[in-house]
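thought: user wants a sequence for this fold. calling inverse folding tool.
action: design(structure=
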């Protein structure tokens, strides 16, 4: 629901016009700052989502959903652009409408996750058993999380 300014209650009170204008201006200034902050945070979430396409441990869909949630409140134009985007829009629409992940996205993400983490376990942290165990636990947890969502079949 879009935000609407309502100054109807001020009509019957004895408030000087200069104070009313100052209060309205101050509220409007705060509102603009919050909108700007939400747009910036949405852009940061979008950037992290784009990086997550290429980095296996950084998820794409949650950051894209966060960007959409931030932009729906602050910038309908950016929100519309994100939903209409040829590559990124389906991630958000599929998850919002179906709470499901496409089969090819599940296969690709789990394969890249395990390939990267097995390489790290064997080649990078081979001297520290506790690091290997924690990376294995992360891989199992993320795999379980990805597979726990319904599979979207086209």
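)
observation: tool returned 154 residues.
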């Amino acid at each position: 629901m879009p935000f609407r300014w309502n100054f109807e209650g001020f009509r019957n009170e004895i408030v000087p016009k200069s104070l009313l204008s100052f209060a309205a201006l101050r509220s409007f200034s705060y509102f603009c700052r919050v909108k700007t902050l939400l747009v910036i945070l949405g852009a940061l979430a979008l950037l992290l989502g784009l990086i997550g396409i290429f980095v296996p441990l950084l998820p794409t869909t949650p950051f894209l959903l966060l960007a959409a949630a931030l932009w729906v409140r602050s910038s309908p134009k950016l929100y519309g652009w994100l939903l209409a985007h040829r590559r990124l829009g389906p991630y958000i629409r599929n998850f919002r409408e179906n709470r499901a992940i496409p089969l090819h996205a599940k296969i690709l993400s789990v394969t890249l996750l395990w390939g990267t983490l097995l390489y790290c376990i064997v080649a990078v942290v081979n001297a520290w058993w506790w690091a290997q165990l924690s990376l294995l636990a992360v891989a199992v947890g993320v795999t379980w999380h990805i597979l726990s969502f319904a599979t979207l079949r086209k």
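thought: summarizing for user.
answer: Here is the designed sequence. The first strand starts at residue 100 and ends at 102.
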